[in-house]
Amino acid sequence: MLGGRLVRGHGPPFWLLRPISGDLSRLEGVTEPVIALPTPLVRRPAVVLEDHPVDGAKRVLLAAPRGYCAGVDRAVVAVDKALEQYGAPVYVRKQIVHNKHVVAELEDRGAIFVDEVDEVPEGSHLVFSAHGVSPMVKDAAAERNLLTIDATCPLVTKVHREATRFSKQGRQILLIGHAGHEEVEGTAGHGGDKVTIVNNPDEADTVVVDDPDNVVWLSQTTLSVDETMETVNRLRSRFPNLQNPPSDDICYATQNRQVAIKKVAAESDLVIVVGSSNSSNSVRLVEVALEYGAKAAYRIDYADEIDQAWLDGVKIVGVTSGASVPEVLVQDVIAALSTAGYRDVDEVETAVEDLMFSLPKELRRDLGSCDTGGRGGRNGGVRDKDSGLG
């Protein structure tokens, strides 16, 4: 996420956010300002739940960090700025990020989401999603003379570069991740025939390699940290010379959100995770919450999906959100819970995030000296010397 506090004043309210700790300075286009994101344009009716008595005081534990990460923010702003600069329609391959609310909002503005590049009219603007694409997809776009904007998260790009380098070195790459996920497909494309996908720890016990002394592992960036390390340990028990990647592939935001929900879950009767079903990191948060002590945990897209029965006998509700989720959706959940008597909200902060990525180079080039802060929008109040934000 980028989590923080709601700022009100002249104009629309916005969330003042602070993202991560850790050395990411080697990544291209990384800066570290504060980011201000406005509340989304599309709102749903307020939710009213029933306030039933429980044995003890009701309260909410709100995990921090949560919600938007730097890569998601960059990708969403990229589509937003592309629409402003080039006009609608702007095409996007796959969902720009895995959140139905964000996708619907961008569709309302004129973005068209497609599965493959052959659905895009020749010469059109096409944005690659935050999850990244394979070289074959880029080649297909070039053949159609598409004007591409690469919104791949820089942390995913790092994994792509590692896959390319290890493949050229002739190493077999064990890619820990979920087959069929867009990010895994993109990384596998960069590694070519040197890549073998390992979906889970059990597959680590059966995967076959050509040379046990020439194997390296990489991973999808949005996995459970604990499950990934279990997979690595089981691989290493079979292949003692298994090489590690130069740095951890699990995204900082994924790790931070999992650490926060572990602490929250240990004290919660119920955990609610805001995020879409195709969001890998959101689904993992539910699993982590259950593993670390929550008596029950559910994933929802919107506050109106809260089931009244979930609250029966519940004193403490933990709340968090995946890395593709706007903060306003979390606040809708908090507002709904308040109608059920959960009015005391304590934020449990385990890390402070202050990372931001500059916009894709194609957009920076075309925007030039234009105001890249938009209509008082997502980057209002940001100063980014590389991208001109501010």
- The overall pLDDT, averaged over residues, is 87
Adjacency order of strands in the biggest sheet: 14-13-15-5-16
CATH topology heading of the largest domain: Cobalt-precorrin-4 Transmethylase, domain 1
Strand fraction equals 15-25%
Order of helices and strands: EEEEEHEHEEHEHEHEHEHHEHEEHEEH
Second rung of CATH, namely the architecture of the largest domain: 3-Layer(aba) Sandwich
For the sheet with most strands, the description reads: 5 strands, parallel
CATH class of the largest domain: Alpha Beta
Uncertain segments are: 1-40, 371-390
* Class computed from helices, strands and strand pairing: alpha/beta
What's the domain count? 3
**What's the alpha carbon Rg, rounded to whole Å?**
21 Å
Count helical runs: 11
Identify the overall geometry. flat
C-alpha termini separation: 20 Å
Number of strand elements: 17
CATH homology superfamily name of the largest domain: 4-hydroxy-3-methylbut-2-enyl diphosphate reductase, catalytic domain
Q: Percent helix among the residues?
A: 25-40%
Family: Belongs to the IspH family.
Region (Disordered): 368-390
GO molecular function, one term: 4-hydroxy-3-methylbut-2-enyl diphosphate reductase activity
InterPro entries: LytB/IspH
